[in-house]
Design brief:
452 residues; mainly alpha; 3 domains; 7 strands
Length: 452
């Protein structure tokens, strides 16, 4: 197994996508886990992970040689997640969590304290010096032994153990200085639990595709794409998925046209060559026109093979017409699903802003939040998704800030998935979004009016 530095070098200098995919597979759990703990939202954590790995893909050729990649990714994830939290009004949840924890103390590894500390672990790690943070990230997030930690940091086994112990003590002191009294055992357990968090499989595949595609976009088109976004929440999905969809669709269409053209030329050339009479063997060898046609056949065959080899795997699998149509349907579904989810996030954010401006009173009509959604009063939320595709959920009780997981909005109609089944977007009181594709789960939350 190649080390991180080798894989980064292979991707940065040679564009080796397999090397980059291996890096994502190794570290996506670290990045997604940190983002989810900070944001409290799995979907938002996926957006953060795509942003972080896109940034890595762009900077792969310029990273210093001795960069500890896991530490670099953790810092990038914390930074990106913190920005996402600020733009999605989730700071209040973390502050309430810290206040509740500050009232309790622990002398040993308290399971409740360990669980409650999770949203605070990454911010505490960000306060440590780079060497201490790298030691903890390698040990607990990367699953490295003390010997491996020492090797990565240029330390002996004993020195690595002391570095990890001192770093944990610094975390304990950090929590204590913020009014959170916990034992060293609780801190170690909290970091261990955080390091064991695993990203869903779809996050890994989505990150690889998004980062590789975004890395090919020029700086000018990147800037122009960001300038076109109307809301902060749309940025992450536009970078991570929108660009990927455009890239895949364009590549698929272009390669299909090239293959079709080459196949037509090849068939015509073969037909002409086979139709010509062959008087005698000697004359055939002297027939310059026939030799030219044979050369043309060979060249077209070579071009077809070269085109197939150069196509990305996702496009190569769609060479056959039926499979190509299916792939295009999936790409279109992904694009629209991203638009629907981000439209829901935009509604959730607008509702949170309205509540903040109106003494925690939530909106009861779209007219109340339209000025926040779009100063021009246009009803479009994201792409071709409009406000009227959502509705206020018909709750049987009063919607309140005291129940942040109550459903505030939902899509009027669930949409079919390419492989069968349905998906529907729900927006909760706390501004978060859930996309539900299980009919049993839909029935459950529709019955309760909440999404726990």
């Amino acid at each position: 197994m190649s080390d991180d530095a080798t894989l980064i070098r292979r991707y940065g200098s040679e564009g080796d996508e397999a090397a980059f995919a291996e890096l994502v597979g190794r570290h996506v759990h670290l990045v997604w886990g940190a983002a989810r703990r900070i944001t409290g939202d799995g979907d938002l954590a996926r957006d953060v992970a795509q942003t972080v790995f896109t940034d890595l893909a762009r900077k792969a050729s310029t990273l210093p040689e001795r960069t500890i990649l896991s530490g670099w990714l953790h810092r990038a994830a914390c930074h990106a997640a913190s920005n996402a939290v600020r733009s999605n009004v989730r700071r209040v949840q973390r502050e309430r969590l810290a206040m509740n924890l500050a009232e309790s103390t622990a002398t040993e590894a308290d399971p409740h304290a360990v669980e409650t500390l999770q949203p605070l672990v990454d911010q505490a790690l960000a306060t440590l010096p780079d060497a201490d943070r790298d030691a903890l990230v390698l040990r607990f997030f990367g699953g490295r032994s003390l010997s491996q930690v020492g090797l990565a940091l240029g330390l002996s086994d004993d020195a690595a153990q002391k570095r990890v112990s001192r770093a944990l003590e610094k975390l304990r002191e950090h929590f204590k200085s913020h009014g959170i009294a916990v034992s060293a055992g609780t801190v170690a357990a909290a970091v261990s639990v955080a390091g064991a968090e695993t990203a869903p499989a779809l996050v890994t595949t989505g990150v690889v595709a998004a980062a590789a595609a975004a890395a090919t976009v020029s700086a000018a088109s990147w800037t122009a794409s960001l300038a076109l976004m109307k809301t902060p929440l749309a940025l992450a999905a536009a970078v991570a998925l929108g660009i990927t969809v455009v890239w895949q669709s364009h590549s698929l269409s272009k390669l299909r046209q090239e293959n079709a053209g080459l196949a037509a030329e090849l068939a015509q050339a073969r037909s002409v060559a086979e139709a010509r009479p062959a008087p005698v063997a000697v004359d055939l060898e002297k027939d310059g026109e026939l030799l030219r046609l044979r050369a043309k056949v060979a060249e077209l065959t070579r071009q077809q093979k070269a085109t197939a080899k150069s196509a990305p795997a996702v496009v190569a699998r769609t060479a056959a017409a039926p499979e190509a149509e299916q792939a295009e349907a999936i790409v279109e579904y992904m694009r629209r699903a991203a638009d629907r989810v981000n439209a829901g996030k935009t509604l959730g954010l607008a509702a949170r802003i309205y509540a903040t401006d109106n003494q925690d009173t939530l909106p009861t009509s779209f007219e109340q939040i339209l000025p926040t959604l779009n100063p021009n009063g246009e009803p479009t939320l994201r792409g071709d998704i409009r406000v009227d595709q959502f509705e206020f959920y018909p709750q049987s009780r009063v919607i309140s800030e005291a129940e942040p997981q109550m459903i505030l909005f939902r899509e009027r109609q669930a949409e079919p998935k390419p492989g069968g089944g349905w998906m529907r977007v729900y927006v909760l009181v706390d501004g978060s979004v859930q996309q539900i594709s299980s009919e049993a789960r839909m029935a459950e939350i529709e019955r309760d009016g909440t999404a726990h």
